[in-house]
Every structure is written in C-alpha cells, then in structure tokens.
Amino acid sequence: MNIIYLHHSTGGLIWQGGQLSLFTRAVRKLSPDLANLISRESKIPGLMTRYNKENNKNYRIKEMVFPKASPYGWHNYPYDYYKIWVKNAGPEPYMEEPTLEMLTKQYQVVIFKHCFPVSNIQPDKEVADIDSDYKSLANYKLQYNSLRDKLYEFPETKFIIFTGAAQVKSSISEDEARRAKEFFNWVINEWDRPDDNIYLWDLYALETEGGLYLKDEYAASPGNSHPNNEFSSKAAGLIFNRIIDVIENNGEKTKLTGEAI
Fold first, then answer.
1. Which domain range does residue 50 map to?
2. Alpha carbon 47 to chain centroid, angstroms
3. What pTM does this model have?
4. Collapsed DSSP state (helix, strand, coil) of residue 144
C-alpha cells in the first residue's frame, strides 16, 4: 500500500509534528533526503513505521511538495487542482507536476490540502467562472464539483482531502472568514458523498473549534496563521488515525477530525 501526502507549509508542519530547526530547513531546500538524515524522524512517517511493526502491515507513506514553487508556482487552491488535474489531465506532467493519471498508477491513497490563503474568499462576481483563479464561493464550488467528478475516474484509489486551514483573526477580514466557514461547511454537508472513494479530514474544525478563526493558542503567533508545534503534533496523530481508518474501515471508525467514534 503506497500513500502520497501532498503539501506545502501547514501540511509540512503537520507531517513533521512541528517546526524543524533553521539549519534543517535550510538543508531541506537543497536536499530533502539529506535533511531527513540529519533531523529527527517526522511524526507521520514515524507513526506509520510503528504501526506497521505492531500490526504486521506494510503501508508506505511519503511526502511531496505540490505544486512546486517553480515552474507552476506556490499555489494549491481549488483552481490549481482543477487546472492541473482536470483541465490538463493525462499521462504526462503539467508544468512538471504529476497528474492524477500519473499519481494513481503509483499510489493507492492520495492526500491533498490547501494552504490557509484558501480562506481569503471574496464576494461572488456576477457570473461564476471555473477557469478563473479568483477566490469566490461560486468559483470554488464549480472547481470542486469538477474535481470530484475527476476523482471518481479512479475508483481504486482513495483520496483524503483536508478541509481548508483557517487564519488568525488579524490576518483575515470577518467577511472572508465567514465565507470560508460557509465553503467548508458546504464541502462537508453537500459536496462530500457517502460510500465513494473520497474522504475528508476536518482540519478547519480542529483549528477553529466552531469559531471563525485559527485559535490563538494553536497559532505560531498572533500574526502567523501557521500552526504551532503543539497543535502540529496533535494534528499529526489525528490525520494518521484518519488515514489508517480510511484504508482499513473506509473511514467508518473515526470522526472527520480523526478522533475515534
């Protein structure tokens, strides 16, 4: 069983279970493999190693920065998954990024997410446009619906999607935060369907606990919407629980947050 975990910064912090040292982060930019050798083992792969040993399993999980800063750009919002995986689908990479046709040949579980600027949702324009990178509820919904149809083309692959990361109160307007909450609620209550190959992990609920913003006690600082080390470590355990449950029980024994039912 091969599992790929696609991420940028917030997802990377959760993968690691907290922030790496400045030195390790500098080395990581040059060589991720060397950084892994000189640093402590990241939390999620460490949990997987222990689970495999204790349960006689052979689940293999790896991370991938997606999409890369160059040539595509550091953008992983609904438009970008739609653009790479739907609009430019096929057996060849798009701007050096793997398509679903490529990923699903190698991995049986694909995990992906959005960075916290996904929550900077603007008012709808008069006409929704699936091919626009303008962040609005109407555009997001068109892009998500198209993406869901695309994921259904790979019924033997399980997909785990994070609900979007929240932001601290100082970094987002109340209107944007309310639209973000509306969108993530729509994803859970309307977009997601039972008994298919798509599963959610509700990072947004963990970060906000029912509010509009990333709680201060979970943030790196009052002005930094990345999760702090304590939250990242806790979240790593919960997403790990969700991954195992999706693989073994189709997600029926955990809540969307990864907590046991």
1. 2-249
2. 18
3. 0.92
4. helix
